[in-house]
Amino acid sequence: VQLQASGGGLVQPGGSLRLSCVASGYAFKNFAMSWLRQTQGKGLERVADIMNDDKTAYVGSAKGRFTISRDDAKSTLYLEMNSLKSEDTAVYFCVRDMNYWGKGTLVTVSS
After folding, report:
1. Of 17, 16, 56, whose CA–CA distance to 34 is shortest?
2. CA dist., res. 85 & res. 2, Å (int)
3. What is the separation, in whole angstroms, between the first and last Cα of the chain?
4. Mind listing the pLDDT tens digit of every residue in the chain (111 residues)?
5. 98-110 in b/e burial notation, b at 16+ Cβ within 10 A?
6. 56, 76, 93, 110: which one has the fewest Cβ atoms less than 10 Å from its Cβ?
7. Residue 43: predicted pLDDT
8. CA-closest candidate to residue 79, choices 103, 50, 42
9. What is the pLDDT of residue 15?
10. CB-based contacts of 106: which residues, under 8 Å, 6+ apart?
11. What are phi and psi of 107, to 5 degrees?
12. Residue 41: what pLDDT?
């Protein structure tokens, strides 16, 4: 199982960013996926989940601002982030089953 996240970077407050995570080594369509993030202040936080039937769930401040989605044909997971705030600054990880983690991509929200 390999998970490769990308799309992080520096963005101004109020801006948007889309993260991607390409999965390989297993049947992507059969598994739920999650985005988690690691911040300096709050530690590890769950951001959003998507089931293999496309049902989604969001945690905390991600509700209403972030959208998790998947493209099973491309074995790719996405996280669309809007109205970004400084507290969204973190390393974002795509995760399968809480056992398989990608390397993470850094998102910095700053003016």
Report:
1. 56
2. 30
3. 37
4. 999 999 999 999 999 999 999 999 999 999 999 999 999 888 899 999 999 999 999 998 999 999 999 999 999 999 999 999 999 999 999 999 889 999 999 999 999
5. eebbbebbebebe
6. 110
7. 87
8. 50
9. 98
10. 8, 9, 90, 91, 92
11. -115, 125
12. 80
**Contact (Cβ atoms closer than 8 angstroms) between residue 56 and residue 49:** yes
DSSP string, the chain: -EEEEE--EEE-TT--EEEEEEEESS-GGGS-EEEEEEETTTEEEEEEEE-TT--EEE-GGGTTTEEEEEEGGGTEEEEEE-S--GGG-EEEEEEETTTEE---EEEEE--
Rounded to 10 degrees, the C-alpha dihedral 81/82/88/90 comes to 30
- Between CA 20 and CA 89 the distance in angstroms is 17
